[in-house]
């Protein structure tokens, strides 16, 4: 049963998230937290048995983090990489079991290595496509290189942006960094509606940066 306190907490979180978006849309790319329906699909690769290492990029206020913690139940290792220090602080207070680091997503391999974790079993991303740089090492390659051979990567995107040039470019990069890339059904209960890419079996990585003015497929 949803109580008045629950509704108040949800409203406060939406207001906080919107405030961060208005303050710095480049760091907080969405105007509202992700829904539970979206989180269920993004977090699907987090296994029930064993002690998986989970890397989370751009956790925001923790819409995916809470479900990861629920699924881990005290097992494994959960590393969250958040660029926004205010949201990182909030996540630390809400989920003290998560190792929250204020850093860029490209630092994930180094952060895993510093902790002696080797590769991740799962990497979840709440980053917008616009956060993936078009120069320098591809972030898709960095993520693929941080995974174990049987690891999985999930990335959500809003349906309305699926055919925009950044999304088309990143989808191509995903196909080049992983042997298998599949898209979920549309998650209509999320606002805005979204879908999730699931990528498995990372391939050899290290592609050259995108030439200026390159045509998209």
3D structure, described in words:
The chain is an alpha/beta fold and 217 residues long. The protein is built from seven helices and seven strands.
The helix content, as a percent range, equals 25-40%
CATH topology: Rossmann fold
Taken from the alpha-carbon principal axes, the silhouette is: globular
CATH-wise, what's the superfamily?
Answer: Vaccinia Virus protein VP39
As for the number of domains, it is 1
CATH architecture: 3-Layer(aba) Sandwich
Strand arrangement, major sheet:
3-2-1-4-5-7-6
Number of helices: 7
Provide the CATH top-level class.
Answer: Alpha Beta
Q: Helix-strand pattern, N to C?
A: HHEHEHEHEHEHEE
What is the strand content? 15-25%
* Arithmetic mean of pLDDT: 85
Short description:
This protein has helices spanning 4-23, 36-42, 63-72, 85-94, 108-114, 139-146, 165-177, and strands spanning 53-57, 77-82, 99-102, 120-125, 147-158, 178-183, 194-202.
Layout of strands and helices, then pairs:
Blueprint: H1 4-23, H2 36-42, E1 53-57, H3 63-72, E2 77-82, H4 85-94, E3 99-102, H5 108-114, E4 120-125, H6 139-146, E5 147-158, H7 165-177, E6 178-183, E7 194-202
Parallel strand pairs: 1-2, 1-4, 2-3, 4-5
Antiparallel strand pairs: 5-7, 6-7
Features:
Rossmann fold, disordered N terminus, 7-stranded mixed beta sheet, alpha/beta, 217 residues, disordered C terminus
């Amino acid at each position: 049963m949803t109580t008045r306190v629950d509704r108040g907490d949800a409203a406060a979180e939406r207001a906080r998230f919107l405030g961060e978006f208005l303050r710095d849309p480049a760091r907080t790319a969405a105007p509202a937290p992700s829904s539970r329906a979206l989180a269920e699909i993004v977090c699907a690769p987090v296994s029930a048995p064993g002690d998986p290492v989970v890397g989370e990029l751009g956790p925001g206020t923790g819409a995916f983090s809470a479900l990861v913690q629920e699924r881990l139940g005290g097992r494994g290792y959960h590393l969250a990489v958040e660029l926004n220090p205010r949201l990182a602080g909030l996540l630390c207070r809400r989920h003290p079991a998560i190792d929250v680091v204020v850093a860029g997503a490209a630092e994930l391999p180094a952060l895993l290595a510093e902790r002696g974790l080797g590769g991740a079993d799962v990497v979840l991303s709440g980053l917008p496509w616009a956060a993936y740089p078009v120069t320098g090492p591809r972030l898709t390659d960095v993520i693929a290189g941080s995974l174990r051979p049987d690891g999985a990567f999930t990335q959500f995107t809003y349906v309305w942006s699926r055919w925009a040039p950044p999304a088309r470019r990143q989808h191509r990069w995903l196909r080049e960094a992983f042997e298998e890339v599949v898209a979920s059904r549309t998650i209509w209960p999320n606002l805005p509606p979204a879908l999730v890419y699931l990528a498995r079996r990372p391939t050899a990585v290290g592609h050259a940066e995108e030439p200026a003015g390159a045509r998209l497929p």
